[in-house]
Amino acid sequence: MNTPHQAPSDAAASAAPALGPDELDEIDTLLDDLRTRGEEIPQWEFCDGFLTALICTRRPIPPAEYLPMLLSDGAALDVPEGEPLPLLPAFADAAQQARFIELWMRRWNEVEAQLDAKVETLDDDRTFQPEAMDMRGAVASLTDEQRAEMGDDQEIPSFGQVWALGFMFAVENWPEDWAAPRDKEAARWLDDALDSIVALTEDDTGKPEVCMFNEDGPPSTSQARVEAFGEAIWAVYDLRQLWKSMGPRVETVRKAPEPGRNDLCPCGSGKKYKKCHGA
């Protein structure tokens, strides 16, 4: 059975509310279920970084191309534009896939609206807010008994690290769409923005000073990491504006040189070009 994948109309997009705590819990539960059929299914934080990169990518990448990269074997589906997607192997049924796409598009529209809003400070309520988790703060806030149940063999990612890895996963899998433009200033703008996001993929080795999970929780994140996270948010705005201003990459078509008027006509008639197709 097929499920539709077209983006909602502008009216539907504006009417669709942002994802609330209940919907975010639903997505986590849904991804957990997908993981029973596909071990490589990522966490929602990774998905959110991936989604954000797609919104910033120079070429609009269709769901038939990006959903298999995120949730399947990476092979793009041969689906004509506007046609419904076939059921991906990770989903239990068409209803589950349709629900995931519905929640995905609500988040997509929310991020798109935030990145297109004219904001000047990160304190603005309209500012883009990545779905980044302070896992170290969450673990540090657990009781000793709860931490003991988790075990000590799990490597806990830094604040924003999984989100940034999801963003760069999209960049790395569509290199042609993220290739530096010829304009040197634009290319430098692109490199600087990507460097800010790549910085979040690294481990936070600074002194823990704040807790991003709970303001009253034990310190889990360095102040330098918090500042780097803010720089990454502005970098996303820069990337969105850069590619919107440049538009999709235009492939130049080289025209074969036209024969001289006294040359033989390439049609094979044996006549001079000026007396044949060049007349």
Automatic annotation (TrEMBL):
Residues 1-22 are annotated as: Disordered. Gene3D superfamilies: 3.10.450.50. It comes from the Bacteria. Residues 7-18 have a biased composition (Low complexity). NCBIfam families: ygfB_yecA. This is SEC-C motif domain protein. It comes from Acidovorax delafieldii 2AN.
